[in-house]
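# nightly structure sweep
# worker-07 picked up a monomer target from the shared queue
# config: single-sequence mode, recycle default, output format = structure tokens
# input follows
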Amino acid sequence: MAQTFPEAAEPLQAGFLATLFRDLGAETPDGPSEEDTVAVHARAAALTHHRTLTVQAEHEHLADLLRRAALPVSAMDFESQLRSYEPRPFPADADLPPVEAEPRWADYAPPQPPAADPDEPASRRLLDSGYQRELAQARLRHQRDLREWRARQAEGAAAESRAARAAHEETEQAKARAVREYNESLEECRRAYRLSEPAAVESLLERALAAAEVATRDIPSPCRALFRPLTRTAVLDLDMPPLDVVPSLSGYRLAEDGTPEPVPRAPAERSSDYLRLAARLALRALQAADAVDTEGILAGVVLNGWLRRPGADPVCLLSVDADRDALARTRLVADPADPADPAGARSPVVDDDEPAPGVYADAEHDEALLRLRELSAVVTPDPYGPVPVVPNGIAGATVPTPAELSPNEFAQLVRELLTRGGLGSWSVRLRGPIGLVATAEGTADSALPGRWVVWASRNTDPVAEDEVRTLAEAVREEGAERGLRLTTGRFGEAALDLAAEEGYRRIHLIDGEGVRELSRTHLGLPLAAG
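# output follows
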């Protein structure tokens, strides 16, 4: 007779039951009973539900991380780190050390004489002459000891009070002195920071970045800071969280053979959730650096997000190159209480048959990623590939090479050099990873009078003569008086010969050695050779 199953239970294959009985060490029956089938199905369903709850907890943890990573950070500038301490006055009722006990008469009084006759009254015994002599002598000893005790107390109490007061005041003064010395050292750091000393700037930045990391200590994401005085730019290297912080499963469901079957998430969905978390951590680091720089020392910030894996080279997953104006224009941290802001995390609904959606809305509409794109950030399309991106700037030595500068840094350096040389009214027309084209005006009494077209680049190959011709055409089209071709490399022989011709006398050339000399002359800071 064929076995039947309840409607709520899924059919189980005999092979699965046979395997289960064999694993349990039991003999395989001719056919499983209906009760055994239901029990095995119930156990499998319970295991599936338990594993699904575990996956749900991982999704909820991710949603909580995303929420906490979007919280605003407290500014860690010098003012917020100052301390104050007012010495406390000595309390009038201060506890003093224990004192010697007062002499008690009970310790001196002689014992009463015994009664010779039980019917004799007590007053008669007290009139005994011997007892009276002992009583008088005891009173004299008690009064003498009491006077001496009171004298010692008067002198000792004052001395102990003075000692306690002195110890209290010494302790309070030591506390106030420690706070004062700390504030003085902080003021020294502030003076060094205002002078753009790299150690002082980096110390302040790293304290602010460490304070911002407190909200997500369960996923360590340390950030190191390097400050380049030449371009007044901070380069931040942020460690991205491990890839397994984002759940790879939506849950579990029962397979046709009755075993729990994992339901994987779509790779694009998992990548989107990871990038949302990475974007929030990057924005938080940018906000910490921006909030701490109350003195306006930084001209820009470069942030690189690195994925570090054991036994593999670090991979750059995102890179931001933002000047100070761009940071000021961008809302760096989301408001979790804003219902219109997609940063409000929601827990996924995990079903046995349907994969769970991402923690947030579609990545193309995620607020944190949109804000990074406002800063012209470069973000990997696939962190699990992983597909690396090219860092905008490299945190090398404090004295950088041209190749280590970000596009913003290079543009800032060229502008600063030429402004110091006499060119004002700076206007960038084109800018790319390796160079820029701009126009500038020099006053009549300056060393560089008239209207100029500037073409600056970080070339590794020699500048060819075609580039000099192109610059000459741009000068004519702009109605400028002169053109400047600046490169951190060198010029080819043909380009030098062309610039020496009569028709190209208005084109001026500056090579890498000239750039480094201008840097030493106008900025007082070196630029390393590439």
